[in-house]
Design brief:
This protein is an alpha/beta fold. About 40% of the residues lie in helices and about 15% in strands. Helix 4 links the parallel strand 6 and strand 7.
């Protein structure tokens, strides 16, 4: 990861593609004005990565917002994901075609398997490899995966995963998995880095915030990057989008990082990667 002094910093993926280490997530962001305003605010304040998914039902809105930006497409890094119901070789290719049409783009920068559906996600990976070879995606990876998912993909892959995107925050670090990805040269990226707001009133984080004259969200996002984890906080509030990116003028001490690490208790806000089908069946 580049020196953490600039929102424009990037991680070089294992295929040479450079991915911004900071971006905007748009989960549960309403299509239309809310989404358009969030993306415009983000890009005007230096963000270059936008993370969406077919499941979010706002790919078309992301595409429209991109078209209305005063920024060249080549500067942007757009991520989307294939949903559970579209896993499998043929279904994945069709789902990708739909996502590309919704986004109204010529290519997608990063395509992720949203959740690794047993028996099917390896077929999806083969479809991903075809899309990659054809230049329709610049990088491929997995969301919500564990070490065994990565190893199973690598066993059948011609092209190894470039990114693992997981729930990651001070209550759910999975350091062994982060370390494994480092040894495999797979970039680790955090979704829900702020634990959906549930950790922002934590006393330790509040104390550290005072020390640096920052808010707890800024402390957490800086902690992400200093741990070598790319991060995509979600917000639709313009002032928060700007605040979240204001993390490049300070550096957490090693002791502060260790203290934040000590908050880890394996608490998830989302499903476990080995039990997500039951989780979504209840919804």
């Amino acid at each position: 990861m580049d020196k953490l002094t600039d929102i424009n910093g990037r991680i070089k993926l294992n295929n040479g593609v450079e991915m911004p280490y900071f971006g905007l997530g748009v989960y549960k962001t309403n299509n239309g004005e809310e989404l358009n305003n969030a993306i415009h605010t983000a890009v005007e304040n230096g963000y270059r990565l936008i993370d969406t998914a077919s499941y979010y039902n706002n790919e078309d809105g992301v595409g429209k917002a991109i078209k209305s930006l005063d920024v060249d497409r080549s500067e942007l890094f757009i991520t989307t994901k294939v949903w559970i119901e579209d896993c499998g070789y043929d279904k994945t290719l069709k789902a990708f075609e739909k996502s590309l049409k919704n986004l109204d783009l010529d290519y997608i920068d990063l395509y992720l398997i949203h959740w690794p559906v047993p028996e099917l996600y390896l077929e999806s990976w083969k479809a991903f490899e075809e899309l990659y070879k054809n230049g329709l995606v610049k990088a491929i990876g997995i969301s919500n995966g564990l070490q065994h998912h990565i190893e199973e993909v690598k066993n059948i892959a011609e092209i190894p995963p470039m990114v693992l995107q997981n729930e990651f925050h001070p209550r759910l670090i999975q350091q062994d998995l982060v370390d494994f990805c480092k040894t495999e040269n797979i970039a680790y990226q955090a979704w829900s880095p702020l634990m959906r707001g549930r950790i922002l009133d934590n006393e330790l984080l509040l104390d550290i915030s005072k020390k640096y004259n920052k808010n707890p969200a800024q402390i957490i996002l800086r902690w992400d990057l200093q741990k070598g984890v790319a991060t995509i906080p979600k917000s639709v509030n313009s002032s928060r989008i700007i605040e979240n990116a204001n993390i490049f003028d300070f550096e957490l001490s090693d002791d502060d990082i260790k203290q934040i690490d000590s908050l880890d208790n394996d608490e998830r806000t989302g499903a476990h990667p080995d039990h997500f089908i039951e989780h979504f069946a209840k919804k």
